[in-house]
Specification:
The protein is α/β, with parallel strands linked by helices. The chain is built from 12 helices and 8 strands. An 8-stranded mixed sheet has the order 3-2-4-1-5-6-7-8, with helices on both faces. The chain is elongated, with a radius of gyration of 21 Å.
Length: 322
């Protein structure tokens, strides 16, 4: 079962609706203008819809896939009213999220028979909310009854270690750290070793957010993997990439760089509240075929939500279908 079954319900949906409000308003305002004066979906409507999706940060490649699917549907059904367009778009976006591997499980799914702590390596550039995401995730894990150990392996930035330690105190979980400039792999090793000794359930390791040298990043992450595998041969269980959704197309480029540098297994997309760029969730999930596990919708602890594709699509489209 998923980790966060205790979190959810009406309050979670309200938070999701609030967080996606600007994206929804922007996207459907543009769609309304795209079909104004039209009774059926024709080439002009499709051209306008293509522009809407691209400017909503869905991404060019994903937009073209969606348009091709709608074209096929229009050709098959011969006549499609513009009033049906939102419903068709909803279906195709839900299908893309399914094909990307994103499902409706709630967060990381740790089986009861998992041998040793579940190790999550967290990667992403500075400023995307990586350390904050780790803190919120630790809070929710602890609230769900899991014991957690944090590792401050971003040793090149003093503020990163300090920030993680503050989160550890706030949440009430131990943080393994060394002095600034220490070998990140050494910190990762000590973190996993400590978690094994204390029989912890989950390990969250913060890593350096540098992207100026892809080779250096790759070498560093590879070294961390190799070192912790001396303790746990199958670790890490997850490599989660944190992306700032409000940066739009820049988030695509970060995903491109990190997936080239290391094997990313899941995504957390933050800062979706206060931005109209929520379409990046659809595009990044589709293009990289990596499941989105969490989305950030605000500053509160519970505003980091396990990503549910059905709830996401419902939140975007409810009230906009005829």
């Amino acid at each position: 079962m998923g980790l966060f079954s205790i979190f959810g319900g009406k309050k979670q949906r309200e938070t999701l609706d609030e967080g996606l409000a600007k994206t929804k308003e922007s996207m459907f305002g543009k769609i309304a203008r795209a079909v104004a004066g039209k009774s059926k979906v024709d080439d002009e409507v499709l051209d306008n819809l293509e522009e809407v999706l691209v400017t909503s940060d869905v991404g060019v490649d994903t937009t073209l896939r969606i348009i091709e699917r709608i074209e096929a549907r229009v050709a098959r059904d011969k006549y499609v009213n513009t009033s049906e367009l939102n419903s068709i778009l909803r279906d195709e976006i839900a299908a893309l999220l399914t094909e990307s591997g994103t499902d409706d499980t709630k967060g990381f799914d740790i089986g009861a028979d998992h041998d040793g702590p579940y190790v999550i390596l967290v990667v992403g550039v500075n400023g995307v909310g990586k350390t904050t995401t780790i803190g919120k995730l630790a809070y929710q894990l602890k609230a769900s009854g899991r014991s957690v150990v944090l590792g401050a392996a971003d040793t090149f930035r003093a503020a990163a270690v300090e920030q993680l330690c503050i989160w550890g105190e706030r949440v009430g979980v131990p943080v393994v750290h060394q002095q600034m400039g220490s070998d990140p792999a050494s910190v990762a090793y000590d973190t996993v070793s400590s978690a094994i000794a204390s029989h912890a359930d989950v390990v969250l390791i913060d890593t350096a957010g540098r992207l100026h040298n892809k080779v250096g990043l790759m070498n560093e992450l590879t070294k961390i993997r190799n070192v912790i595998r001396k303790l746990m041969p199958t670790a890490p269980d997850e490599v989660m990439l944190v992306l700032d959704g409000s940066t739009g197309q820049n988030a695509f480029e970060q995903a491109r760089q990190f997936t080239a540098a290391t094997q990313v297994t899941s995504l957390a997309i933050t800062k979706l509240d206060g931005t109209a760029k929520g379409g990046v969730v659809i595009g990044i999930s589709d293009q990289f075929k990596i499941p989105v596990k969490y989305i950030g919708l605000g500053e509160r602890m519970a505003d980091l939500q396990p990503f549910n594709r059905r709830a996401f699509v419902d939140s975007l489209f409810d009230g906009n279908e005829h």
